[in-house]
Write a structure and sequence with these properties.
Elements lengths: L1 H14 L11 H42 L47 H4 L6
Length: about 120
């Protein structure tokens, strides 16, 4: 019975750190994750482009060899053209979008008893 109790106690002590909360990711970590996701999406597009080109080459080879052997190849099926994804362009940093940029520096208090004309150096009418 002591062995079972000891095993349960050790299991409970080892499981406690698993339940702890992780700190929120920093902006640098978020930027790295966004760039990694963009790079993964781009590499998937490159792989699809390369696969499309390989399938086109194999169909072309099949048609040439069938024609050389005197056989008739079936009619080609219309498929969309292979689109080249181009070079990888990393996403802009979070601050470049202006979403988190602070407002301009205040030159006057947000509310005052002065008229708007007086705040801009003009006489009050």
């Amino acid at each position: 019975m002591k062995l079972v109790t000891t095993a349960l106690l050790l299991t409970a002590l080892m499981a406690a750190p698993v339940c702890a909360k992780l700190p929120p990711p920093s902006d640098a970590d978020k930027a790295k994750a966004a760039e990694a996701a963009a790079k993964t999406a781009w590499s998937d597009k490159v792989a699809a482009f390369q696969l499309c080109r390989a399938m086109d080459r194999s169909v072309e080879y099949y048609r040439k060899s069938a024609k050389a052997a005197g056989q008739e190849a079936p009619a080609p099926i219309a498929t969309p053209a292979c689109t080249d994804p181009g070079a990888f362009v990393p996403p802009p940093p979070l601050e470049a979008s202006g979403a988190h940029s602070p407002a301009t520096t205040a030159t006057a208090p947000p509310s005052s008893k002065d008229a708007a004309a007086e705040q801009h150096g003009q006489p009050k009418k």
